[in-house]
C-alpha cells in the first residue's frame, strides 16, 4: 500500500520535535504545525538541515491578523421593518494604544517546500501578547525570507528580531500605520490632493464614507460536517 | 578636489528598461555595481486586502491584474485554492481547457518577456516578431472570454463557458485589400479549436525564427553569457522558482512534480539549464514555449473528442444557466443568493500553487466560514526573484542591470500586488 508522504513526514516531525510543535487539523490534506515562538529558530534550522526533512526552500512568509476571525458584519435573526443596515455601522477597534494584544491575534505563517522529498509544510507562529509583535527572523536560515519579512512588517507591524534590514517595502515613503491589520480601514486614513494655494501635494483625512456592498456573513452549512473542519486549538 | 570612491545612482521608476515602476538605488564604483537596492511598491494596490472585503468570486478579476501578462494562470491559482477548501470536483473538460489556456498564457508571457528582454539589450526586431504571435493568442482570449487581457474566465468549479464554435473575423477596412482580408481570415473560418490547432502548427517555425535571431547571435551572447550566474544552492536558498530555478539546473516543475488540473495526462519535457546565467535562462524559456506548444496540441486533440460540461453542476457554488433560472424556482433562488451574497466557504486554510510562467504562484487562503475570504496571501514568484537583485548584479556593469531585470521576467503587477 502506498503511504501518504505528508503523513510519513508528520510522523517524523512528531517523533523529532515532540511537544515543540502542535499539529493543526486540515480539511484538504495539508500539513500545518503550530510552533512556539521561542522554538522557531531551532525547529526551522532542523527542518532545513536534517536529511529527514530537507526543507531547502522557504516559499512564503506572511502575516495574519486574527482580530475579527469568525465574526459577521451583519447578523439578522428576523427581517426588520426599517430595512437592513447593509453592515455599515461598524465599530472601529483601535488596539494600538494598549500594551498587550490578544496572544493569538497576530501570526506569522511560513510555507516550506522540500524539493528532494517533494513535500510541503506550513508552520504557524503566534506572536504572543507583546505590542509591537515580535518574532525571530529566519533570514539566516532561509535568505528568501528577507523581503517576505519586510512585507509582513510593513503590512502588519510585526517585528522580526535579527532581520538585517527591516524597512517598509510596499507602502509609500513616510506611510503611517500597518494597512493589512483588520482595524485599519479599507479606504485608509488619509487622502492626497494637490493644493494650488500651497503649491504642493497635501495629505488630508479621508472624506469618503465607508460602505459595504455585500455584507460578510457566516452561514451554518451542514454540507461541511464538523469533523472535517479545521479546529482551532483554543476551542 | 575630493576623490570620490563610489557614488549612488537612482534608476527608475520612470525608465523604459525598468519594466514598469521599478526604482533601483545603485551603489556604483566607476561603472561596477557594488550594491543594488530595489524600491518596490509603486504599484501597490492592496489586492489582498481588497479581496478580504469581497465575496470570493468577485476577486477573480483582481487576479488578472496581478501579473498582467499571464492573466489566466493567476486566476488558476486562486480558483484552485477555493476549490481545495470547498472540496468540489472540476469536470475533466474544464481541466483540459484550463491546461490549454495556462499553456497559451505561458507562451503569451514568454513572448512578452522575450520581446522586452530583447529590446532592452539591443535586439529590437524581437519585440515586433513576438507581438505578432501574441496577437493570435490574445484573439483566443477574446473569443473565449470577451476580453483580450483581463479574462475572468476561470471560476471555482470549472470555466465560465465552453469554447466558441467560431472565431471572430477581421472586417473590411480601407486599410486592407480584399486579398489581404481573405488571407487574414482564412484560418478563422472554423471553430476556435481549429484556429488554435493552426497556431500550434505555425508556432514552432516562429520559435525557430526567434532562435535564428538570438541563439547564436554574438551580441546576444556577449550580453547574456556568464551574466548573473546563480548556483543551484543559492537559487533554492533565495526562493527561486520556475525558469529561474531551472536555469540553474534544478529540475523542478510543479506541472510534473505536483500535478494539478490535467497535467498528469500530458506528455512534455522540462528543460533545465547548466550554468545558471542569463543565457541559460533564455534557452530554458525558449524551450518552454516549444513544450507549451506540444501541450496545447494534446489538449486540442482531447477537447475535440470529448464534449461535456465545463463547470460543476453544484448550484450552491456555480450559478445556474439563464434558461434554468427563468423557469425554475429553485434555480432562481440559487441565482439570487449567489449574486447577492456569494457562497460560504468552510472554515479552514489552503495553499494552492501552480507553475506560473514566472515560477511558483501560490495563493494561501484562510476562510473562517464566511462568504468572503478571511485572508488571501498571494505568493508572487517575481517578489522572491527581485529580492535577489542585489546579489545577482553585484560586480557587474551598469548595463548588465538591464539584462538582469530582463532575465528575472519582472512584472510589477504581481510584485507590488
How many E strands of chain B?
A: 8
Q: Would you identify the regions of chain A where 5 or more consecutive residues have pLDDT less than 50? A: 231-235
How helix-rich are the residues of chain B, as a percent range? 40-55%
Structural class of chain A: alpha/beta
Order of helices and strands of chain A: HEEHEEEEHEEE
Low-confidence stretches of chain B: none
Major sheet summary line of chain A: 5 strands, mixed
Average pLDDT, all residues of chain B: 90
Percentage of residues in DSSP E strands of chain B: 5-15%
The rounded Rg of chain A comes to 22 Å
- Morphology call of chain B: globular
Strand order of the largest sheet of chain B: 1-2-3
User: How much helix, percentage-wise, in residues of chain A?
Assistant: 10-25%
> Helix count of chain A?
3
Which structural class fits the helix and strand makeup of chain B? mainly alpha
Shape of chain A: globular
- Mean pLDDT rating of chain A: 81
